[in-house]
Amino acid sequence: MNRYFLKGVSLLTVIAFASCSHDAWFQKNDRAKQMEEEYSSNFKTIVLGGQDVDARQTWNTAVSTQITLTSAKAGTLKIYATDPAQGTAVAALYTGSINKGETKTFTVARPQDATTLYATILDEKNYMIDNMAFDASESKVTAAFYTVTANARQMNVARRTIQPIFDFPEDADASKFLDDVPAGVLPYEQVQQWGDLRTGTCYVDPSWTNPINVTGSGCTLYIKGNCDFTNRKFYVAQNTEVFLVRGATLTLGAESASDLQGGCNFYIAEGATLRTVNGAELVGNNGLHFYNHGTMEAGKLQINNASVLYNSATITVNGELSTENNNSVIVNDGTITATRLHTAGSSHVQNNATMTISGNTDIDSNSNTWVNNGHYTTTGNFTYTAGSGDVINNCHLTVKNLFKIALASTNTNGFKMDSNASVVTKYFEAFGPSHIFMGAKSVIEVTETATMNISTQKYGNSSDDVPYYGIYGPETGDKAVFHAKKIVSGAEDPNQCFVASYLGQLVVAYDESHFPQGYSDGESDAAKANGGIGSQPYYVIGDGAIVEKTENIDYTVESSECNPGFHGGGIVKVEPKQYVYFAFEDLGTSDDFDFNDVVVRVSVPDANNQSTVELCAIGGTLQQKVFCGDTQIGEEVHTYGEFGDNTKKVVGVPITELGTVNVPAGTSVADLDIKIQVTRKDGQVVVIGAPKPGETPFRVTVTGDEEGKWFWAKERTNISDAYNLFGKWGVNMDSNPDWYKSPVESRIIKW
Fold this sequence. Notes:
The chain is mainly β. It has six helices and 54 strands.
């Protein structure tokens, strides 16, 4: 059949509404009765496979559901049959404004298969500021958004001003880093006694080929030239000061490097090198201090028990760099590379320049301090456990694989980020009662998947001193940004309730999906006790936070020394309109079940409870008029366009708007008494409307899909051939209620 395209037509707008009467849905004389009987018999055989119509079947895929909902925020309220947080623009079943704390009651036409609905609050930019799934399986439901009263911690400050509790030491005085041995200092061989230095000051150079054995406490030893102690002992007693002057190299064997004594100070001047042989471990214990302005090289490097490593130049560790216990300290003002950084006990690390870890970084004590004021990179995993108050990122942290925070503390400890600071990681995992505090325009960038399982409780401890667990932006001002390709739940217990809390001024941006697993809490008693009715989301959105697909966000963080920046796509969301479709057979024949003789659709009501009525398809040759109750909507359908001799057309796009109707409060679109008046060839006028339960249908009512669309059958194609599950639904309305979502593509009008 030729496809038909319209020219402009004048419209009759109808604003009156007649109540939904289902009486006398088909007026018939004897011939009409006979055709109806033939139609019913053929329908049973052809469409239902010889089975009877379900006695409850109304041939309507929509269920009118009354919703009473209380909002915790002011904005635009929308109700969806599909989770709108998955980034695809979906059609809303309801749209209206709502105030903070307001309770509204309204009725929607929900798809029969959609027993869970989604309530969303949008701000003035159409950004999601609240989202909740709720059980809508009953005809009347009540739902309430959770409220959040937690305040964020103020982070609107300049970079590098989040100070740790621990007071890091300063570098040694510049006078300690020497170009040469001071005048008057004697060589080791002149002051040693039987190979030992028991007191005083001396220097060693390559001319000394025996062991070094400084046994007196408080001595001073200068290293000059290339002094290789690979195969001989190098021992200095406690509280010895060792100076590597410019150009000096001190190479230590494994035994000597692991037996440096407490209280010693090593000063490594520019151009000097302290190294261990063949990957040996260098150990600083019991108050030993390394001050490096040159080069340090070791297989492993331990800083333990009140020892200090202060680096202003270059340190290369081919294995693990570790610090633990009794306020041991590492400060980096230069460049440090290692295969692992491990902090434990009451140890403290501060990077002010460049630190690169080719393996993993592990922070695993609640007494640790880890502060990054520069560029810190770990090519493996960054794992932060236990829960310290002093894990702070003031600049740029790059994690090539996984950033994992898994805390056990319930106080304000967590991971803190200054304004304009950033974390860039491939994967992100947050477990346990964790806090992440982000400053203004700071960015966490997850290039792949962020997995959330932040708390096993609803929010955490809600006392004034302990904020709720979750991710915080600043309290006021510019927002922080948490951006991931996709965000998922890591909860093993489906009844856990919230696993992510977004709090403060925070943008949560996702590229693909946001908790695509669905919803966590089902219909548990715990959820109901908390004010919900089941099917709770994995997350809660606090005041000031938004959750939105990246391409729809109009927000920018400019790139800087400490931040790669963030640029939302700025694409304004265009949300499709939801419709209910009314598809008719006009009984022109008794064996044609394509339900396209007339197809009209009615939009969900707008804020004024007004819906549009549009003509979508004309597949019948008889004269037909569309009515809502007793009120005609528009003109005879064939007047819309130039048909010529062909009066029978099926079109692939909506033809025209017939008019508008007002939808009374407490009524859904699916309840409207949409019917057609048909003038038969013998002049008899019959009216076709909604069938009574269990009757053979001449009208099928179908909800639109996520885009508000439904695709009717091609001309002379039985609806059960276009939709193979239609007949199964007809004989058991509990079976395949979403039949209309599975068409045979070649047998429908796709538009």
